[in-house]
Design goal:
By secondary structure, the chain is of the alpha/beta class. It has eight helices and five strands.
């Protein structure tokens, strides 16, 4: 059975009725029918949400997923990070795992410090507050890194995203085995299934992902 890891934009695509919604829901339906192994990464709960707020519990993410038809989707555990991760939804990393995550960060965002204290120090930001407006961009980048790290660490087949920030992974020799694909391309790898009772569209696109 093929495995798919959906990034946050897949959830947003369904919520906002974006064009790729149909493909995402085909992947979700295949998981519900036992035809595909589909997961998301718990770090998406730590990203800045639409409207500028942050979730206070992982249950808020679970409720949103359930409301959008993602309720049966597994949450993979990223590396536990102080002041960012939710307890019981992260792992204690080995040196090798930390090194791999840093390599992913430097590959995706070569002009950004992968370490929050270093990033904050270089910009005179309070090092003990990851919720400020100035910290938003670093935090969302770090969550992207955790998403691709978890996908890589758990040896999954397809990382599914519409986010162009992941493009550098496609051409990096160190990640030649990773397959980063669009929802439409991912749906093309699904086995045949009968019936396509997808939820009705929620409307036209409303907004772009906040960074």
């Amino acid at each position: 059975m093929l495995s798919f890891t959906l990034d946050t934009n897949c959830l947003i695509a369904v919520d906002e009725g974006r064009p790729e919604r149909t493909a995402v829901m085909e992947i979700i339906a295949a998981a519900k029918e036992g035809l595909a192994d589909v997961a998301m990464v718990a770090s998406c709960a730590s990203e800045r949400q639409v409207g500028g707020r942050y979730l206070s519990t992982i249950d808020e993410l679970r409720e949103r997923m359930k409301a959008l038809g993602f309720g049966h989707i597994v949450l993979l555990k990223p590396i536990m990070t102080w002041d960012l991760s939710f307890w019981d939804h992260g792992i204690l990393a080995s040196e090798e795992q930390l090194t791999r995550q840093e390599l992913i960060f430097r590959t995706l965002f070569p002009n950004t410090e992968p370490d929050w204290p270093a990033f904050a120090k270089a910009r005179n930001l309070p090092p003990d507050d990851l919720t400020t407006r100035a910290a938003w961009h670093w935090r969302n980048k770090y969550c992207d890194v955790q998403a691709i790290w978890a996908h890589d660490n758990y040896g999954r087949d397809f990382f599914v995203t519409t986010d162009r920030d992941f493009d550098p992974i496609r051409s990096a020799a160190a990640f030649s085995t990773l397959q980063v694909v669009t929802p439409e391309a991912a749906a093309g790898h699904l086995p045949p299934r009968t019936g396509r009772n997808l939820p009705p569209s929620r409307g036209a696109p409303k907004r772009s992902r906040i960074r």
